[in-house]
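[Q] Does anyone have a clean structure-token version of this?
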Amino acid sequence: MTSSRRGRRPAAILASALTALALAGCGLWEPVDTSQIEKATVDPDSRIIRFAHQYDPAHPVESCGAATLRTELADDGFTVETYPSGQIGGEGETTEQIATGGLELGVVGPSFLGVWYPDAAVLDAPFLFTDVDQFDEATNGPIMAEVYDEMAAETGLRVNSTWYYGTRHITSNVEITEPDDLAGLKIRTPDAPLYITSFAIMHGSATPMALSEAYLGLQQGAIDAQENPIPTIDVQKFYEVQDYLNLTGHMVQAVNIVSSEKFVDSLTADEKAGFEDAMEKARVATRDCIVEAEQETLQTWEDDGTITINDDVDVAAFQSLIAEEFPSKVPWGDLYLEIQESVR
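[A] Here you go.
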């Protein structure tokens, strides 16, 4: 491991190793059946956990992840109240609410968490992983465990779990098969500087915009394209205002489930064990739901012609540009390379 990117305290290394061992025993590859999940009856004596995220109630983050948490934690005396669709505000506001105790849990993307602790943004880097297996290996491994331990010590924010959000692809009204095809296109991205950096390297022009505004922006021509995982493209109905789904696979993306250290410290030993077990089951359930949704939705679109699938993308050309320039453009370039090396 590269020692220059951040100080390594023996306690942090030990904690990281213990975290990795604990996760290794949690049934990392064991599928979770979510078919019987129902909303639990609220116990008036239970402890409330308020959980906020940006996604539609139909999205797997809510329908599989949050639903699993709700069911699993009910047995431990907790009631999970979810606030989907950005009811609490954006990811920045959600993070602030967690830090100040206004929320117990929230979904925060790596770029937004990187505002608080720069190394945490690494999981939003392009072509960090090539598939979900690599994603699982790294996000549940010792390198990211150490990043999260050090972030908690410095900021008081604790990443309790990292969930697969999906593999991001580009939709557009023209075929995109190579980097030059992005030239001149205004591509909607989340409002995070890392996306601007990444797409500039790939010859595109990122246009930050709220997800809720993207459909209208595409419909009115304010933007030419957007990039998101297939389940999000489906829920947002971007196929109604875009002609092509270009399978760039430029990001195998994570979302972080974040609490404060103060909240975690408030749990008894039994509560903490139940909380960690529920979080692991929710992580696996979300991954399985999203992978299934990606496969089934793509097949449906191919079968009925909902949107033209462009699977002739020169992904290697995009990867080559990123490999040449990206690590030198970010403060955690060594960490990026270290994670890549660890899974390949």
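[Q] Thanks! Anything notable?
[A] Strands lie at 47-52, 78-83, 105-108, 157-172, 186-189, 205-208, 225-229, 244-260, 308-310.
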